[in-house]
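Structure request: Glycosyl transferase family 1, Winogradskya consettensis.
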Amino acid sequence: MTLLVISPDYASHLLPLAALATAWQRAGDRVVVATGPATAALAGSFGFEHTELSLGRGSNPGVIRAEQQPAGEDDALRGFFAATYRGMAETLRFQAEARRNDLLWEPVDRAHAVLKVIEQVRPDRIIVDHLAFSARLALQSAAIAYVDVVLGHPSALPVGAEVYGYPIAWPAAFHPGEAELAELHRICETVRDGFTDEWNAALHTLAPGATPVTDAFTGHGDLVLYNYPAALHDTARTQQLPVPHAFLGSAARTETPTADIRAWMDAGDRPYVYVSFGSFLSARADVLSTVITALGRTGLRVALATGSAQGLPPTPADWLVATYLPQTALLAGAALAITHAGNNSVTEALTAGVPMLALPFSTDQFAGAAAVEAAGVGIALDPNAATAPEIAGAVEQALGCAPAARAIGERLRGDPGPGVAYTLAQNHLPGHPPR
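Returned structure:
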C-alpha cells in the first residue's frame, strides 16, 4: 500500500503530517511526501520518499528569514512582521489582504502538477494539508477521495456564519475596537468572495462540468481530521463540523535529545520553562527580550529557542539557549511552555501535559490562546502590551494550571493521533475499501 502526503513547503506544516504518516510506515506501507525543496530533507529524515511539488511562492525549512525568501515574498514577510506590532486587528487585516495572492498560487498549473504526482505515485490513500488549497482543488476537480487534515485551530475550516480569517474568539487581554473589528469582518468577506470566484474559475478550467462552490474556504475532503484536542473545542461548534470528522488530539513527533541537551534537562533541582515563538514569530525579538527579563526574576531554569531573533539580552549561564531546540523532547520535562499559541506548540505542550503562557500574534493564534485560557490549561497575554512584571506574574498563574494540563496530556498520550488517523483513513475513506 502507498500513502501520499501533500504538504506546503513549510516545516511547521510538514512535521505534524509526517508524524501522522509514521503510522503507515509502522504498518510496513510505502510513504511518499510531495512538498517543495526546502522541506525535502525533513521528509527524508523520517525515512519517507520525496517527490518535488511546490504549492506556493514562499518556503520555510524551520526558521524563516525574510532575506531568504524570493523577491516579493520577502517584502510581504516584512510587512507581516510590521503589522504584528500594531496589534490583533491590524495583523489580521494584513493577512486577509495578503490572502488574495498567496493561497491559490497559479492554481491551474499547480493542480496539474498535483495530478501528475498522483499519476506517478499511484497512491492508495492521500493525506492533504487543509491549507494546500491548490492541491485540494486538483483533487476536487478529479473527484479523488482524500483525508483533509486541519493543522491549525479548527476555525481554519469555517462553519455556520463564520468568515475565514475573522477570529471566532480572542483572549480577555485583547480589546479590539468595534469599528476595527467591523472593518476586519468586511475585508474578510470581500477576500472570501474574491477567493471563491478564483477557485470556481480554476475549477471550471480543470473540470468544466463541476458544480461551483459558494464559499471556497468551507470546502473540505472526504474525511476531516482536526489536529486538535477535543477538550479545547467548544461543544456547540462541534455539532456543526463536517461528517465524518475526528479530533486527533495532536500529531506530536518523537524527538531524541542529544546527550548535552539530555544532561541539561536532568541537571539541577529546579524546574524549567520552555520558550519558543515558532519559526515565524521569533522575529519579535522585543517580546522575547521582555520574556527573558521576566523569567530572570523567577528563579526558573529556561530552555530558549531564539529562532531568527537578534539583539537579545544576556541570559544566565544555566539557561539552554539555541537557534533551534527539539521542542517535543524538551516539553516532555518542562514545567511550563511560553508560546505564541501556534497550533503545533499548543497541541505538543498539551500532549506532554504542560501548561502554557500564551502570547498570540496572528492568524488562529488568538482563537488558540482563548481556548487555552477557557480550558484552564494556561494564561494568555497581549505580547505588545505585557510588561516584564506582568509576564512574571502570569508565569506563576500558569504554573497553577498544571493539573488540568496533565489530565488532558494523559488522555492524548493514551490515544495518539497517528493511530487514530490510520484507523479512520483505512476504514472510512470513501472510494478506498479497508484492508
